[in-house]
Amino acid sequence: MSSIRPWRDIARRQSRQIMVGNVPVGGNAPISVQTMTNTLTSDAAATINQIRRCEDAGVDIIRVSCPDVESTAALKQIVRAANVPIVADIHFHYKRALEAADAGAACLRINPGNIGSSERVKEVVNAAKANGCAIRIGVNAGSLEKDLLEKYGEPCPEALIESALDHIKLLQDHDFHEFKVAVKASDVFLAVAAYMGLADAVDCPLHLGITEAGGLIGGTVKSSIGMGNLLWAGIGDTIRVSLSAEPEEEVRVGYEILKALGLRTRGVRVVSCPSCARQGFDVIRTVQKLEDALGHIKTPMSLSVLGCVVNGPGEARETDIGITGGGNGKHMVYLSGVTDHHVENDDMVAHIVRLVEAKAAEIDAGTSVSMDTLHGKAA
C-alpha cells in the first residue's frame, strides 16, 4: 500500500531489538522517550515524586544516578514504586552496578572500559544476565578516554565511534548483546556525525541525545536540530532531551520532537499562529490556556488555533478541531475540517476544551478517527 503523503515517510534504520524492562527498544518498536531524575537517589520519596510527574508527562524510561551505596540501597524501593523501567546510572565503581542489578534496575548505564579489569566487567555482565538487565554504553565527548584524546587531539566523530566500538567489544567478549549505545556531545555537529558513523558500523539500538544542551529554550533548539536531523534520517531508537530544566519538561520536548516528525504522537498536537494585528482574539494567551487545560489528554489528535481567516480555514481542514478568529468577538469553530458553529470570546477556551475531550473520548472508543491518522501523521 502506497503512502498517502510519501514526502513525510521516514525509513527507520533496522536495528536489533532489546528489552529495557517491559519497553522494547530498537527494531520496529516506537521510539521511547527518556529522562533522568535530579533528586538525590538516596531520597527515595523525593525521587519517586519526581518519577510520578514524569510518568504523568508520558515518559517511557527513567534514569537515576547511583553514585554511592546509599543510592543503590534506595533503588529497590524506587523500582517497586515506578510504573516505568528504571535505568541505573553507574560511573567507575563496578560494585554499584552489581547492587543496582540486584535491586531491580532494568538497565545499567556504564562504560565497561571505565569500571576496571576484564574480571570486573565479567562480574557486571553476569549480574546483568542474572537479573535480566540491559546495558547502555554511554560515550560522551566530555569524558573520552585519555588515549583517544592523545590519538585524535580532540573529541571528534572518529574518537567517539572508536570509544563506542571498544566498549561494545568488551561486552561481546563476555557474550553479552542486550545493549544500546549513545555517542553524545554538546556540539550538535559532532554528535550528529558520530551517530551517523556509528549507525553504519553497528546494528544495536542507538540512544540519541545532545548532551548538556542548555536551558529550556536553547537546549530545546539544539536538541531539535541535532536529534531531528538523525531521526529524520531514520537513526535513533530511544531519546533523551538533556535540559537544564525539570525532567518532565525534557519528556514534553521529546514528544514534541517526535510529533513534529510524525514518528510518535501523544496528546494534542497544536497548530497555532504567532498572531498579528489581524487576530480576532489574543492567540498567545489562548494557546497557553489551552495547552495547560489539555495537558491531561493522552489521545493523539490535533487542534488548530488561528487568529484570523487568512490561514485559519486552511489549517482547520487538516485538524480535528479548529478555531479561527472573527469579528465582533465571534469565532468560527471547525470539526473534522468542516465549518460547524460559532463561539464567543467569553466561552471560547472552555468550549474548545469540551470539544477536545469529547473528540478524544470518541477516538478512544473507536467511534471516530483522528484527522492526523487520516493524513498519515499519527504513529
- State the separation between the terminal residues, measured CA to CA: 16 Å
| Quaternary structure classification | single chain
Sketch the major β-sheet.
8 strands, parallel
Shape: elongated
What is the ordering of alpha helices and beta strands? EEEHEHEHEHEHHEHEHEHEHEHEEEHH
Query: Uncertain segments of ≥5 residues (pLDDT<50)?
Result: none
Helix proportion: 40-55%
Q: Please give the number of β-strands.
A: 15
**Residue-averaged pLDDT, rounded?**
94
Strand content: 15-25%
Cα Rg: 23 Å
Number of helices: 13
Helix- and strand-based class? Answer: alpha/beta
Q: How do the strands line up in the largest sheet?
A: 8-7-6-5-4-3-10-9
Description of the molecule:
- By secondary structure, this protein is of the alpha/beta class.
- Helix content is 41%, strand content 18%.
- The protein contains 13 helices and 15 strands.
- The chain has an eight-stranded parallel beta sheet.
- Helix 1 (44-57) crosses helix 2 (69-81), helix 5 runs antiparallel to helix 6 (157-172) and helix 6 crosses helix 7 (188-201).
- The radius of gyration is 23 Å and the shape is elongated.
- 48% of the residues are buried.
